[in-house]
Amino acid sequence: MKLGIDVGGTNTDAVLLDGHAVLSSAKAPTSPDVTRGIVEAIQAAAGERDLSRIEAVLIGTTHFINAITQARGLTEVAAIRIATPPQTLPPMVDWPADLARALGRHVFVVRGGSQFDGRLLNPLDEDGLREIATEIRGLGLTQVALSSVFSPVNGEAEERAAVILLEELPGVSVTSSAELGRIGILERENAAILNAALRPLAEEVVGGFERVLQDLGIAAPIYLSQNDGTLMSLDEARRYPIRTIASGPTNSMRGAAFLSGVEDTLVVDIGGTTADIGVLRGGFPRESTVAVSLGGVRSNFRMPDVLSLGIGGGSVVHDDGRRVGPDSVGYRLTSEALVFGGDTLTLTDIAVAAGLADIGDASRVADVPESVVQAALADVRTRIGLAIDQAKLAAADLPVVVVGGGGVVIDELPGVTTLLRPAHSGVANAVGAAFAQVGGEVDKIYTLAEMTRAQVVSDAREEAVRRAVKAGAVPETVRIVDTEDVPLTHMAGGTALRVKAKAIGELRREEGN
Fold this sequence. Notes:
By secondary structure, the chain is α/β, with parallel strands linked by helices. It is built from 13 helices and 25 strands.
């Protein structure tokens, strides 16, 4: 038996599964302290079942993306770039002012790094790095983000720099960009800086998850879901919290594929605060091919290509129904919505008034004018319909799977002929977390001087498989789900090839965590 949990901005969902069968599910309002909402959701889903029978706990959370977007709960960071000084575009150059201010804008540049094919660009200036360490000590900083030019190809500069920093600053926490991002130093550097800023919060959040489950008598291994629909251990989550920030929409899309049985489709996930629209390919979200903005900061690591709208069950209805959201009552839905005795007209109230949902006290919305109800529904359907057109890459008609607790407001969409709402769609996010798999990915530049294209692609695929197995996948279940190679004709006389490969497999059962 597996327990899937999704901690959203409005609701915390829990689902118990036996094999591929959904045994039970429940929702609870996400509490300000988060842990109480998790306990309530688990207890409601479990009922009289013995929680000690749970073999694995799989969690998706919005803690870290919320911290970034709100610029709260973050720690100041020393950002060190290993390159050729001076730099025209320094670290954090285009960050939003409030977020940069929260992290302190402590930026440094030291000589070093590699060329695109891994050859040395400049030797690492170790003396200069030790001087920077002295400055960091004086500032009292405990988090450092390292980024070196072309470090995903040759990570030696970042590795050596980390050793030196730990010698000079015992107890400091170092994030290396090569472990997080892809080719492209600015976006990869941004991911490393954000990750470093989140690490203390990750310690707190992960520790909270462990304590809650221990108090409930659950001794099973715990995993967090990542942006690409795969899993990470708690130790990895402590080190790389940035990898979990898009787990919410990813889990919902993966859950939609599992519950509907359709692996190539469009998914509309309407939660309490937002509606996320994305495309499934082979049961996994289509990855974004461009830099993704996180709270206004560009990054280039694995992220689903999702379009988000400020539409959810908690969205406030304005202008006699002509505008829904983007503001939301969030986890206060059960106290502020009309049907729960509050005085705020929300999309949930509209759904109840329209007869699309049976939640709370319907008599409290009996006097909401029909014109307001229809205007609000029309606004939601029109905006989601337009977003679906944006998400599609071709004019071909695709089925649309609607999931999420707020999905009840969608019974039709303009231009959509096949609309699916599978059983348990309201907790698709928790189902997706429970069925997440283990992955491994490679993004590397090869020279073709001594290897053929076929050989370098094969090498990248094999490395992706090895990484998936190392991450905890059952070797016999690992398969390649995506391969991409792009000739870099502007480099080294056209003899370079950038190869990306991704492998996934089933989670290996282990005792302990």
